[in-house]
Fold:
Amino acid sequence: MKTYTKPSDAELHKTLTKEQYEVTQHEATEPPFHNAFWDSKKPGIYVDVASGEPLFSSLDKFDSGTGWPSFTRPLEDENVERREDRRLFMKRTEVRSKHGESHLGHVFDDGPAPTGLRYCINSAALRFIPVEKLEAEGYGRYLPLFEHDKDESKATSNRTVATLAGGCFWGMEDILRAIPGVLETRVGYTGGKTKNATYRDVSRGDTGHAEAVEVVFDPAKLSYEELLGYFFRMHDPTTVNRQHNDVGTQYRSAIFYHDDEQRQIAERVKERVARSGKWDGPIVTEIVPAGEFWTAEDYHQKYLEKHPGGYSCHYLRD
Structure:
């Protein structure tokens, strides 16, 4: 069996980014929701970014709502050490890799069954090995863990992503998440060039980003064309950079397509809406390639579910 050791400090400085080094060597914490793996659902394993020792599996990963990758258990328990941590004037349990001695994160006792544990881990401490590369990268012994996933590949592949913008994302998400066939939603910022965009940045109106909703849906239950039918009913696609009282480029109407098929469908639906006669003015909805999507702050997620009766200018028109 392969052995794993901690590289020298000089090697770590060469191979790790500044953030990876600070997290693994100086117990830093990366920002929630703005890290590599917090919402990743790809099958594979996570190894120590420094030593390569196997730590966690996607099979044990769950959405904890915290904005960091969370697992119910380690992949190899002997590779994860637990230590008492009182750095923030409270008692916590730190987890570190045994051989790489990397700081990973902390473990809490508020996780789901079957363990009741939540390993809250920094993405910067991890390197992801997808199933298809396990053998090539020397982790082939973990392939049998994913055989059951292969049998269910059709079921798990029935997930398609759409990215839509049409004014304040609170109201849009509230309607979208209730549509039959929609599996997940999250609000954020896309279409501009500002990296790690925040609400404060986007609200200035000069980042080029639009408030948008990323929608994961099951195409066997809801087609992309049907989803766009809802989209054109829930906002006014004739107002440039405006929805009701919300004014600015961040409130523009836009469809961010993820492939050429989505582009063709979007153009077809837009043309159909334009010819329908339901709107007095021309349809100004942009149809542009999807770019990086910056997840909005947690308090924006499912805002109207948390604050019933809160502000919204969205509704489904007949």
In short: The CA atoms of residues 26 and 103 lie 8 Å apart. Confidence is low (pLDDT under 50) at residues 151-156.
